[in-house]
Amino acid sequence: MNIILLGPPGVGKGTIASKLSKKMKVPHIATGDMLRENVAQKTDLGAKAKNYMDKGLLVPDELVIEMIKERLKRKDCKKGFILDGFPRTINQADEISNAARVDKVVNLQASDGIIVKRLSRRRVCSQCSFIYHLDFIKPNREGFCDKCSGTLYQREDDKPETVKKRLKVYEKQTEPLIKYYQDKDLLVDVDGSGLPEEVFELVDEAIAA
Ligand SMILES: [Zn+2]
């Protein structure tokens, strides 16, 4: 089964996608990880992407799309895949449709208030970048990373004022995309405001339906 997981930043897409990936035994594909992987493995696309990243520029859409297409062609995607947070635009969605069949698009939803509150509890390790959550993934020692003892900090991106802005941008950007998948009769809305296990149950049901 080929699934796209959509939802605003902070709704918990990554957590749900990784649980689903384990249960369904299909790869979890997130663009950030994919980009880093390509750069680390020095693939042609990775080298091109690195040129932009080294200059502090955004990696162009076409390059990301190329990478996704290449990723979806790999053997492990034969049984299915879970695309996490991609596509974001109609153009990207069209490209995905050309490259692979899409069976379901799960749209995780939660109110801005819940997301702002959730993200404000997130902390990142200054050394290894592992992400903690003061309610869900607590470090053993307050303020320090379990893995490398690095100090934990709150990213600028996770502060309430920034989150509110990001949510507005997301909404504006994805509105047409939601409509696009609704029109194709692929979209299912799932309430993402509960605990991760609860949300996972709901997503699982929505996919089976
Ligand atoms: Zn660490």
Structure description:
The chain is an alpha/beta fold. The protein has helices at 13-24, 31-40, 44-54, 61-72, 90-99, 112-119, 160-183, 196-208; strands spanning 2-6, 28-30, 81-84, 104-109, 122-125, 131-133, 152-153, 187-191. 48% of the residues lie in helices and 15% in strands. The model has no long low-confidence stretch (mean pLDDT 94). Bound molecules: zinc ion. Zinc ion is lined by residues 125, 127-128, 130, 145, 147-148, 150.
Index terms:
alpha/beta; Rossmann fold; 3-stranded antiparallel β-sheet; 8 helices; 8 strands; binds zinc ion
Which radius of gyration do the C-alpha atoms yield?
17 Å
Order of helices and strands: EHEHHHEHEHEEEHEH
How do the strands line up in the largest sheet?
A: 2-3-1-4-8
Helix content: 40-55%
CATH class label: Alpha Beta
Structural class: alpha/beta
- The count of domains is 1
**DSSP strand tally:** 8
CATH superfamily: P-loop containing nucleotide triphosphate hydrolases
Average pLDDT taken over every residue: 94
Oligomer: single chain
Question: What is the third-level CATH name, the topology?
Answer: Rossmann fold
State the helix count: 8
